[in-house]
Design goal:
- Among the domains are: about 10-160, Beta-Lactamase; about 285-439, Heat Shock Protein 90 (2-Layer Sandwich).
- It is about 55% helix and about 15% strand.
- It has twelve helices and eleven strands.
- Strand 2 and strand 3 form a beta hairpin.
- Helix 5 runs parallel beside helix 6 (about 210-255) and helix 6 runs antiparallel to helix 7.
- It starts with a helix and ends with a strand.
Length: about 450
C-alpha cells in the first residue's frame, strides 16, 4: 500500500531515479550519524565536563557560605577562583530575566539543566555569550556571579562536523554521479536508437558500457538488422513477382488488342484489374522503406495534394491548417502515398472529402473527412488489416481493390512511430481518418 501510494510521486527519468538512489543512502547515513553521534557523544561529553566544573562551583559556594563575613568570603573565594580559572564578581542583585542562549547553541540547554541538577542553589544562568557561562548564586553574603569558560563545560558545537559531513557528502555524490552517468549513457543512447527506429529512422548506434548493457545493445542491433533483412526480402520478392507478371500481362494486353473490340473489352478489364492488384501488392510490400527522411512542411504537403486533386476535378476541399508552417522530418514519398490512399478512399465511398493538418511540438496529425457511409465502430480495427474489405460498411459496389489501402496507411504510420485512427467525422458525417505521426 505504501509503495503504491508513493509510486506516482517518484521520478520517471533514469537519471533522476539513479540520482535518488545515490543521494538517499547518503542522506540517511548523515542523519543516522547526526542522531547517534551528535546526540549521544556530545551530550555525554557535555555532562562529564559540566559535572567536573560543578564540583568546583560547589566548592566556591561552600567556601563563601562558611566565611564569617562578606570581606572574608570574597577574599577566600578569590584565592580559590584564580587557580581554578573562574572569574568571580559580587553584583548588587541577581538579574530578574536573562536570555539563556542563542538559537544556534545546541548544547546550552543540556549544560544549564546539568548545572541546575548538580547545584540547586543556582538562581540564574546565561549563555548568550558563547565564550562564557554566567552563573548567579545567592550566598549568605550576597549575590555572587561566576563566569566559566564555555570550553570547560561543553564540547564544541557540532557545526564543524555537520559542515564536513555535508561537504564530503556533496563531493562524494558528485564523484559517484560522474561514474554513474558513464554507465547510464549507453542505456540512454540505446533508448534513443530504439525510439528512432520505431519512428522509421535508423540512427547510428555502437554498444558500449557494462557487459550487460553491451549485450542488450548487440541484441538490439541484431534484431534491427534482422527486421531490415526481412523487409528487404519481402520487398524484393514482391517486386520480382510484380516484374515477372507484368511481362505476360503486357503480352496479353497486346494479344487482346488484336481481337474484336467488343470481345476483348471484358478481358482487357480483367488485365487492368490484375495490374492494379499487382501495384497494390507492391505498394504494401514497399511501404516507406527505401524512402529517404527529409524535412518537409506538412502544410505545404497538404496544399500540394489538394492541388493535385483539384486539377483532376475531384471534390477534395482544403480544411484546417493549424500549427507552425515549418519543415519536420518525414518520408515524403511514403506520407504522400498514405494521404493519396486516404483521399482516394474518401472520394470512392463518398461524394466529397476534406483534408486538414494539425502540427504541434510532439506530433503531426493529418485528417481526412468524408461524407460516405463510414465504418462501424466494431469493425474499424478489422478495416486496417491487409486484404480486408468491409462489404456492408463501405459499399463494395462503388469501389475496387484488394483491401490494402488502409493497411498501407497504417504500416506507414507505424514506421513513423505513429498510428492510424478511424473515427466518425464531425464536419461531414462520414468517416474521419487521422494519420498521427510522432515528431
Amino acid at each position: 500500500m505504501f509503495l503504491a501510494w508513493l509510486k506516482p510521486y517518484l521520478p520517471r527519468g533514469l537519471y533522476t531515479r539513479a540520482l535518488l538512489i545515490l543521494i538517499l543512502p547518503i542522506l540517511l547515513l548523515q542523519l543516522g550519524v547526526s542522531i547517534l553521534f551528535i546526540n549521544r557523544h556530545f551530550d555525554g561529553v557535555t555532562e562529564q565536563m559540566t559535572d567536573a566544573v560543578s564540583i568546583e562551583l560547589q566548592f566556591l559556594i561552600e567556601t563563601a557560605n562558611q566565611a564569617p563575613d562578606a570581606d572574608t568570603a570574597r577574599s577566600r573565594v578569590a584565592d580559590i577562583a584564580d587557580p581554578l580559572q573562574l572569574a568571580v564578581s559580587w553584583p548588587a542583585a541577581i538579574p530578574g530575566q536573562t536570555r539563556a542562549r542563542t538559537w544556534s547553541d545546541f548544547t546550552a540547554d543540556a549544560v544549564a539543566a546539568r548545572l541546575r541538577f548538580r547545584i540547586p542553589q543556582i538562581d540564574a544562568i546565561s549563555m548568550i555569550d558563547k565564550d562564557f557561562v554566567r552563573i548567579w548564586i545567592d550566598t549568605r553574603h550576597g549575590p555572587m556571579q561566576i563566569e566559566v569558560n564555555r570550553r570547560r563545560v561543553s564540547a564544541s558545537n557540532p557545526h564543524q562536523l555537520l559542515v564536513i559531513m555535508v561537504v564530503l557528502g556533496v563531493i562524494l555524490t558528485a564523484i559517484s554521479f560522474i561514474f554513474l552517468r558513464n554507465q547510464l549513457r549507453p542505456i540512454q543512447r540505446m533508448a534513443v536508437a530504439a525510439t528512432d527506429y520505431g519512428k522509421g529512422r535508423i540512427t547510428h548506434y555502437h554498444p558500449s558500457g557494462a557487459t550487460e548493457v553491451r549485450a542488450a545493445g548487440m541484441a538490439f542491433l541484431d534484431m534491427r538488422n534482422r527486421l531490415e533483412r526481412q523487409i528487404q526480402s519481402r520487398t524484393m520478392m514482391l517486386s520480382g513477382v510484380s516484374h515477372d507478371l507484368r511481362t505476360p500481362l503486357t503480352r496479353l494486353r497486346l494479344g487482346l488488342s488484336l481481337l474484336d473490340e467488343d470481345d476483348a473489352a471484358p478481358l482487357l478489364q480483367d488485365v487492368d484489374d490484375m495490374q492494379r492488384q499487382l501495384d497494390a501488392f507492391l505498394d504494401f510490400a514497399r511501404s516507406d522503406h527505401g524512402d529517404a527522411l527529409v524535412r518537409v512542411s506538412p502544410q505545404q504537403l497538404v496544399r500540394d495534394i489538394h492541388g493535385d486533386f483539384q486539377r483532376a476535378r475531384a471534390q477534395l476541399f482544403l480544411g484546417t491548417l493549424s500549427g507552425p508552417d515549418a519543415p519536420v522530418p518525414l518520408r515524403e514519398v511514403a506520407i504522400r502515398r498514405a494521404l493519396d490512399n486516404l483521399c482516394n478512399n474518401a472520394l470512392r465511398y463518398g461524394s466529397r472529402a476534406e483534408i486538414s493538418v494539425y502540427v504541434t511540438d510532439r506530433a503531426v496529425r493529418f485528417v481526412v473527412d468524408d461524407d460516405g457511409p463510414g465504418i462501424p465502430v466494431d469493425r474499424r480495427e478489422e478495416a486496417v488489416r491487409p486484404f480486408t474489405r468491409l462489404d456492408p460498411a463501405r459499399n463494395q459496389d462503388t469501389g475496387t481493390g484488394v483491401g490494402l489501402g488502409l493497411a498501407i496507411v497504417s504500416d506507414i504510420a507505424r514506421s513513423h512511430g505513429g498510428v492510424l485512427r478511424l473515427t466518425e467525422s464531425d464536419s461531414l458525417g462520414g468517416l474521419r481518418a487521422e494519420l498521427v505521426l510522432a515528431r
